[in-house]
Design a protein that fits this description.
The complex is a heterodimer of chains A (about 425) and B (about 60).
Chain A lengths: L6 H4 L10 H4 L3 H14 L2 E4 L15 E4 L2 H9 L4 E2 L11 H8 L8 H10 L4 H6 L1 H15 L4 E3 H6 L1 H11 L4 H11 L1 H4 L3 H4 L4 H25 L5 H7 L1 E2 L2 E2 L2 H32 L1 H9 L1 H16 L4 E6 L3 E3 L2 E3 L4 E5 H4 L35 H18 L4 E2 L4 E2 L8 E3 L1 E3 L5
Parallel strand pairs in A: 2-10
Antiparallel strand pairs in A: 1-2, 3-7, 4-14, 5-6, 7-10, 8-9, 11-14, 12-13
Chain B lengths: L1 E4 L9 H5 L4 E3 L5 E3 L9 H10 L5 E4 L1
Antiparallel strand pairs in B: 1-4, 2-3
Classes of the chains: A alpha+beta (about 425), B alpha+beta (about 60).
């Protein structure tokens, strides 16, 4: 009797390391050195499972790394071949966590199409324009609190507060204590491997705790909105029907989790990385403030490219198929490396330059143009414009004053701490 | 010039609406409506910009 090995068990691994803790604890420019080699020599390459997995998964034999811009866009658009329903992070996760935190981001058509359309009503250009004043007011209040201090930890004292207030306003989370706890708990969704965040706790246990908190909080507000409808997103979800049926509490909770995570961590990251870049590239900052309102739109695109707040998303092959000359087999994990695509010299001239006037700037930080393209992209852009207009006008000399500390994660490009100083203002 | 919408690709992101709000509108039900499928020729550059802005490739121009 002969046994034929499954391709996943016999396929040779690419020698370039992008799986180890050593790789993921490097800085972004250090990781880029490896990506550059992969893009040039093996833009679709097979790698061993990442170290420090959230849970043991003996079935996990590795993943395909998609590092070039062109192949990343291709994977994004081939949503029939590369599915999201089995999870969208590199690591294998217990199903309960997938269900609670990933919502429609981890769904495939046709259900994805219907649910997404339902939510997209809250993110249309008109709707974002309607809440534009509220977003500006939140930015003003954040800088009001920051201005007299002269120094601060930019991440918790500014960057984290921007999306926290805006997302909570949209969802109708009005209790300040709930807002703060919610923003804090959302970090565990992608930061479970970070030692500072975890404080020695077991990642899986802590992640379950965060999930339980978000479920309970969502449950409380869902009940309130059923009894007292408002004009917020949660009320629309409670009242919405898909195919003639109301959404279940579990489904609503799952969107709540997704919006909390996707909404809080990404904008926090982009704002923080932008603060660092504006300090490191003073010429760019000078160019921006010469015509702040006119230049902020293009500047925000470059901030988002530079930050690439989500570094990886995963798909799972629905069938045997080809990608970039590689034979993919059904069930293979296919991981898109957004930071690498955003540095692809086939598309970006001098990607290592923080160039606020970059045009065109077809970065993939909001996605490569597939059906899962970031729903909140307009919201994110509006928030970034609002906070930078406020900061650069009122605290014109704000700058990074010490070493940042970064999150250890294969998913979030996170900044934990970023000391800043500025001339105090009234 | 005719604007063609492929509803199977449209994710209702509204990038087209932010470029040309007179021609495209994502309604409160989350569905995109092409308000004016046959815009005048002098809007061609704007329409091309709107079509190019669509990240999911749901829009095209037919002559």
């Amino acid at each position: 009797m002969t046994t034929v090995d499954h391709p996943r068990t016999s396929r040779p691994y690419d020698p370039r390391d992008i799986s180890s803790k050593a790789f993921w604890t490097q800085t972004a420019p250090e990781r880029e050195k490896t990506y550059a080699v992969l893009r040039a020599e093996a833009p679709v390459s097979w790698h061993p499972p990442v170290e420090d997995m959230l849970m043991e998964d003996p079935e996990d034999r590795g993943f395909w790394a998609v590092t070039s811009y062109a192949h990343l866009v291709e994977v994004t658009k081939r949503h029939d071949d590369f599915l999201s329903g089995e999870g969208i992070v590199m690591e294998s996760m217990p199903q309960e966590l997938l269900d609670a935190g990933q919502g429609f981001i981890a769904m495939d058509p046709p259900r994805h199409t219907k649910i997404r359309r339902l939510l997209s009503a809250a993110f249309t250009p008109k709707q974002i324009a309607r809440i534009n004043d509220q977003i500006a007011a939140n930015a003003r209040r954040i800088v009001d609190d920051l201005a007299p201090r002269g120094e601060a930890d930019f991440v918790p004292d500014c960057a984290a507060l921007v999306p926290m207030h805006n997302i909570c306003d949209m969802m109708g989370i009005d209790d300040p204590a709930d807002r703060a706890k919610m923003a804090h708990e959302s970090q565990f969704a992608g930061g479970w491997s970070d030692p500072e965040l975890m404080q020695g706790l077991d990642p899986l246990t802590r992640l379950f705790e965060a999930t339980i908190f978000l479920r309970e909080l969502a449950g409380k507000y869902i009940e309130q909105r059923r009894a007292h409808p408002g004009d917020d997103l949660l009320t629309s979800l409670v009242q919405a029907e898909v195919d003639g049926e109301r959404l279940t509490d579990d489904e609503i909770i799952s969107f709540f989790g997704l919006l909390t995570i996707a909404g809080n961590d990404t904008t926090r990251q982009s704002t923080s990385h932008a603060m660092k870049a504006l300090t490191d590239f003073p010429d760019q900052r000078a160019w921006l403030v010469e015509d702040l309102d006119g230049r902020l739109p293009s500047a925000v695109e470059e901030m988002v490219r530079w930050a690439t707040p989500i570094m990886t998303f995963r798909r799972t092959a629905a069938r045997d198929c080809e990608l970039g000359g590689q034979q993919i087999t059904q069930g293979d994990k296919v991981v898109m490396f957004y930071a690498s695509a955003n540095w692809d010299t086939e598309v970006f001239e001098h990607p290592e330059r923080f160039d606020l006037s970059r045009s065109p700037n077809p970065h993939v930080s909001f996605g490569g143009g597939g059906i899962h393209h970031c729903l909140g992209n307009q919201l994110a852009r509006t928030q970034l414009r609002a906070i930078w207009r406020e900061l650069l006008t009122r605290l014109p000399d704000i700058e990074v004053s010490g070493e940042p500390s970064y999150t250890y994660s294969t998913f979030f490009h996170g900044v934990n701490h970023l000391p800043v100083r500025f001339t105090p203002a009234g | 010039m005719r604007i063609v919408l492929d509803e199977s690709k449209c994710s209702s992101l509204g990038m087209c609406e932010s470029v040309a709000p007179d021609v495209f509108e994502v309604g409160d039900d989350g569905a995109l409506t092409v308000l004016n499928p046959t815009p005048p020729e002098d809007q061609r550059a704007l329409m091309e910009e709107a079509v190019a802005a669509c990240p999911t490739g749901a829009l095209s121009i037919e002559d």
